[in-house]
Amino acid sequence: MFRSGPSSASFLLAALAALASGLTAWANQWPSNAAMVPSSAACRANCPTTGSPEIQGEVLFPDGSPATNVAVELEPEMAGGTVATAVTDSGGEFYFTDVGVGNSYKLSLDVPGYEPVRRTVTTDAMVNSEDVTLVPFGGKKEPNKGAIVSVEQLRIPPKAMAEFRQGVRQMSLGRSDAAEQSFQKAIHLYPNFARSYMRLGALYADRGRFSQADRAIHRALRLRKSSSSAYCYLGYVSAEENKPKKAAQAFHHALALRKDNWFAELELGRLRYSQEKFRRALPHLLAARRIHPELASAHLLLYDDLIRLGERKKALVELDDFLTRFPDAPETPRLRKVRAALAAAIAGKP
Fold first, then answer.
1. What is the per-residue pLDDT for 216?
2. Which of 274, 289, 305, 340 is the most exposed place for a label (fewest CB within 10 A)?
3. Residues of the chain predicted below pLDDT 50
4. For 285, phi and psi rounded to 5 degrees?
5. Residues 6+ apart with CB under 8 A from 340
6. Number of helices and strands in the chain (H, E)
7. pLDDT for the residue numbered 349
8. Which residues contact 33 (CB under 8 A, 6 or more apart)?
9. In the Cβ-directed half-sphere of 311, how many Cα atoms lie within 13 Å?
10. What angle do CA 233, 239, 243 make, to 5 degrees?
11. Is 128 helix (H, G, I), strand (E, B) or coil?
């Protein structure tokens, strides 16, 4: 169903360029016969699109259980920046999209009974991981379980966290072999590292090693049953194995755990599109674009879905939005020609 390549970021650009080339040919032939937008598992899961990095992570109690409904604030270090807030979901996960490359932020959160977290984050990759393990004030009882814990024994070891972050950076840069080694090292240092299993599963899936991917992702789900991201990975693997019903169930489960999961929405839309169920694909693609407006592939897939539905005027609006948001994208010059042809077709010009 999808193709993969050595560099996730470069692959997405190539995929979008191919789509743009096809759109030029379709501009005067309605409805289009477009193929769905391809991209690699690593890219779709971890680097949404060039120029649109994310900061993501999870907040855990010392015993590894997720800290839910915790407000995480992200404040740009440059004066005048707007403070963004994300609330952890049922898996303790939080996400900030469209943070820009090379920017510095202050990440902070406060949970009663635990040391406040104040951390400086510099975005140096498409996906920047900032997991937080809460530390009790002076070894006090945990408010959620009332047990005395040894923080040093139960928290994720710093070396394991360092390997995981390195793996995320390498994955964002398309260095799959190095990323796989880093995630495996992180798991060796901390066998219950659910997110390392998830990322390892994504890498296996990207290489067509689906049985290994399935095992890694199910291991992650055993460790973290409430992880929306893990169900997204499971859905992707099921889609690759041509199990659309199982894939759809996994994506819906991911959305039940986190309503603003752009990846689950995008993949549900992509799945329905591949089944030529264009009307059913539409609400999911609209949601993906709304949640993550700087996701180029969501705009283009939505555009083509609207063309398939005969909604030319709405498709033109979507294409204009893409051209406004991504004026310097490699495919933009071609898409401007597509835009002119589409506008002429709507106006009834020869």
1. 95
2. 340
3. 1-51, 140-154
4. -70, -35
5. none
6. 14, 8
7. 65
8. 26
9. 14
10. 120
11. strand
Closest CA to 283 of 316, 307, 308, 306: 306
Give the position of tokens 């975005």. Answer: 123
Here the tokens at position 96 are: 């900030």
In this structure, what token pair is assigned to residue 282?
């539409």
* Token pair in block for residue 21: 């080339």
Question: Before 31, cis peptide (omega within 30)?
Answer: yes
Taking CA atoms, 20 is separated from 29, 216, 245, 336, in Å, by: 15, 35, 30, 10
At 96 the three-state DSSP class reads: strand
- Contact by Cβ (8 Å): 92, 66: yes
Number of alpha carbons in the 13 Å side-chain half-sphere of residue 99: 30
Return the structure tokens found at 271.
Answer: 């799945």
What residues form DSSP beta bridges with 60? 66, 133
Q: Nearest-CA neighbor of 106 among 133, 76, 72, 71?
A: 76
Gap between the Cα atoms of 233 and 210, Å rounded: 11
Q: CA 172 to CA 280: how far, in whole Å?
A: 31
Other CB atoms within 10 Å distance of the CB of residue 77: 12
Backbone φ, ψ for residue 74 (5° rounding): -130, 115
Any idea of the CA torsion for 239, 200, 87, 104, to the nearest 10 degrees?
A: -120
Contacts with 35 (C-beta within 8 Å, 6 or more apart), sequence order: 22
- Collapsing DSSP to helix, strand or coil, 334 comes out as helix
Work out the angle at residue 168's Cα, subtended by the Cα atoms of residues 265 and 20, and round it to the nearest 5 degrees.
50
Strands of 71-76's sheet, edge to edge?
84-87, 71-76, 104-109, 117-122
The pLDDT of residue 9? 31
Q: Which residues of 79-115 are buried (b: 16+ CB within 10 A; e: fewer)?
A: eeeeebebebbbbbbbbbbebeeebebebebebeebe
Tell me the residue type at 233.
Y
Specify whether the CB–CB gap between 225 and 93 falls below 8 A: no
Task: Say how far apart CA 261 and CA 229 lie, in whole Å.
Answer: 8
